[in-house]
Specification:
Number of domains: 2
Structural class: mainly alpha
Largest sheet: 2 strands, antiparallel
Strand content: under 5%
Number of strands: 2
Radius of gyration: 27 Å
Amino acid sequence: CHHCKSRSASAPTDTSKIHYEKFWLYRHCSSVQQRDRQAQKAGQLFSGLLAMNVVFLGSAFISSMIFNQVAITLADVWILLSILKVLCLFWVIYYLLGTSRLPHAVLYRDSHAGAIWIRGSVLLFGMCSILLNVFQIGYSTILIHCKSRVEIVFPSIGILFICTQAYFLWHHSKDCIQVQHNFTRCGLMLTIATNLLLWLLAVTNDTLHVEIESQLREVERRLAGKAPSSRNETTLCTCPNTTICKVFQKGYILLYPFNTEYCLVCCSVLYVMWKNVGRRISHHHVPHTKPKFKLQGVVFGPLLGTAAVIIGACVFMMYQIQATSLAPSRQVFVIYYSYYIVLLPLMSVGAVIGTIIHALEKKELDTLKNPTRSLDVVLLMGAALGQIGMSYFSIVALVATDPRDLLNSLILSYSVLLIFQNITQNVFVIDGLHRRRTPPGKEEDTKEEQNREAYSQRRVSVLELGQEIRKASLSYIQTYSHLSWKRRVLREISFFLVLCNIILWVMPTFGAHPVFENGMERSFYGYSTWFVIVNFGLPLGVFYRMHSVGGLLEVYVTA
């Protein structure tokens, strides 16, 4: 059970229970420890080569589908990915029912891996991906006369794959498996490669989007009294004028970014599990007391952040109301980009001030080996490339067309500010993640204990309620004054950036995509090219905001 696993992770481990790794290339090593290290490196190398070959094979299939749709069709790509999904399902089931239940299989559990917000993201995006597949099955079933059977089978296997993988990651993301090392590494790398290929297909495959777009154009052409299009395949496979079909279409387009987000989050969690295979955690690596999130010591950060969230929610609702009823007006785009132009400089200034305070502090750097933190740094840098890349594409398109126009100048300013904000925030978060945690003061702990004891010994009546609120306020102010000014400013900045990143995550995640709907870049690059750019950059941008929240909360707690 999980209680036994966690207890065994914290208890001292008997050396007789340790399963040292073996590999046939290093069977003649002099010491057991040296053979174990070499076998671990060889296992990582061979499993990495397996993933690389699977990714290259899948990429070749997807590229061939894009450039030569006659030889390799979308159905062929779906068949390949279905085979990979089934293989991953077999391995995950074997891990759940076999590997993890072997004696001394999970002697250690990585406390840094599988944070609750990461596992919560897996569940949230997994449920949205399941709904996406349900909508795709419903849409293909309605048009079964002109759709292939594979278009129903592929999302059906996808639902089973998502459910099994989400359960696996929720319960076993912290495991440092000590048995069947090479087989586990290969299984994890195969699952990572499958998720990467699913993400690549979602980024490049615009078949259904083009189909829906062509149907809308056909309807507009008929309403305008023009002759119907000469392409018979569009009219043969047209969604009937029913509410259920429109719901499937709209739901598919709305939930499409969640699927790409799900693949990216799963890849990050699986990579940490892969790094933790065979890892033995020493006692000084295990934290005795986990830092807890407390709201005490911050005033201005929550106030400014809440204001940013409320204003952003109003802008988002205004945009969504117009986007769902008809094409968004120019005024809505101006309001949307103006909000970003005001908020992004404030976030950048806060990150720069936080970085300067980190430089002024005399805190030691945490140099202990931590795969989760190393991955956090890589993910922050890599995910930021999505928004930065899209911004540069927008800058080139706008400068080459008409940068003097009001809307174009707003989008241009937004793109430049977004690049600067991503860079400054990355520097602040990465620097904060490598700082050691500041131990809480003894006075603060004793006063907190006294307050708890006094509260537990006495029941609060209605008449004493005002007095208790007054005492709580005085205690809050006293705690705020006890913090040094550097820690206080760091907490204010971190909390403000957390709330800002939350609203900047909510807006594109739940449907606000002006970068595609304003039509500027789409007309410059063309529909298909800009579709690939947006589907590459937008999920990375959403993932970056979500991952930044986790990093900023860590900086806030350790300040």
